[in-house]
Every structure is written in C-alpha cells, then in structure tokens.
Amino acid sequence: MVQFDGLRPARLKVGIISAGRVGSALGVALERADHVVVACSAISHASRERAHRRLPDTALASPPDVAANAELLLLAVPDSELSGLVSGLAATSAVRPGTIVAHTSGANGVGILAPLTPDCIPLAIHPAMTFTGSDEDIGRLADTCFGVTAADEVGYAIGQSLVLEMGGEPFCVREDARALYHAALAHAGNHIVTVVADALVVRGWLVEHLGIDGGPVVHSLTDFAVRAYPTTWPISLSAPQPERSSGARPRPIVSGCCATISIFLDSFQNYWRI
Fold first, then answer.
1. Whose CA, among 36, 142, 248, 270, lies 20 to 30 Å from 133?
2. How much is the pLDDT for 246?
3. Where are the domains of the chain?
4. Full-prediction pTM beyond 0.85?
5. CATH classification of 4-173 is 3.40.50.720, yes or no?
C-alpha cells in the first residue's frame, strides 16, 4: 500500500504504458521529482528508441508486467486504445490493489477506469499541450496546465500534487465536463495555431519582399488576441510552427480519432441546449 506524507505523494515506483511522446516526457518529469520509473512498454521502433534515450535505466516490459511492478501506473496511450487497455489489465488482474492509475486522455474522465476500481485510485491527468516528440516537450511541461479529474477529494489531492511535482499547473475538471473541456481545448487550439501560422507566413512575406521585420507586428497581434479574449480556465499551447504542419494540431484531429471527435460534437450540442 502506498503511504502518503500529508498531501504529497511518497516516492513512487512508476510504470508507463506506453513510452510514446507523452509517456516518456512525463516519465522524465516524474524522475526529476525523485520518483523512479521502473518499467515501461514500447512497441514501435520510435518509442523504443525514445525510451532508451529518455529513460535509460528503465526496463522495457509488456503492459501486464509494467502494471504488476507499479505503485503509480501511467496510461499514456491514444484515446482509441485506452478502453481496450483498461479492459485487458482488469481481465488479467495485472494491477495491484492500492495502485494509483492515471491516464492522460483529455476527453475521458475516471469513468473509463471503472473496470479497475475500487481496488485502484483512478486519476485523469491531461497535459494541455501538443507533444511534438522533441526534447523541448519536457521543458515545456513546466507551467503547462493539467486538467485533473478524480473520484474523490483524496484523488484530487494526489493528482494535483503529482502535477505540481512535474512543474505543471493543475486545475480540476468535473467528470461530467471532461468531454466539453477537451472539445473546447482542441477547437480553440486548432484555430489559434492556424491563425498564428498564417501570421508567420505574412511575416516571411514582409521580410522577403519589403525588408520589414514583421516579428513585432505578429507578436503584437497575437498578444492582443490573447488579452482581448480571456478564458475562464487556463490553456497552454505549444509554440506554433512557421509553416502549416499537421503535427502542430491537437492530436484528435491529426490521428483522425472519429470516436473522440464524435464525443466533441455531442458535448457541444449538449452545452448549447443548457
């Protein structure tokens, strides 16, 4: 059983499924907070290379073996794979009682972890940023907002503490608002990234054809846009790329996750009915 010192998580043995862009970055952040990533799963060649580079002392193992050795189990898989992974872990009884199980999906709350409860402590911890796979992702985790959902006050305290230890800014998202939260984030993120990318193209044109440094203009316009339309909850976005790149867009759009996009549409429709 994991012991806690007040509201601060004890030093935990961490297991990560899987060591992709998100999982490996969070693993580094947790190790910097003195937790120990004891095992992770990695299927693709890119994930295995990333795991060896970022978490060199961490063993590569199958998902059941990763879960069996973890006190904190981090499920950092695409939304479309999360339900199947949870069902498989439950069917094999791979997760030990008392384990903190946290997923990184934005659209899902803790309900999707129901097959593993009440034996585990379920958390949804979503970093509100786009992961590019570069090492800059790790640095950008600092001050990034994390949407945290838990089953009770104890879970919220644990989730917020973990986020703070990784250098992030936690904010609570109700279970019934999770889909709307992520839909709004993805919707706004796509528009902002597109507008800023277009502004950077204009900047390049000004430099090339008129010899004018458009940097201050772009900065002023984007700063005005942010200040003119304040949000009621914090958002952290990745730095935009100077050309139109699908990699800069929120993951549900890039991956074509129809189920997640369908959840977005339903949440918007329900919101406007209220």
1. 36
2. 42
3. 4-173, 178-273
4. no
5. yes
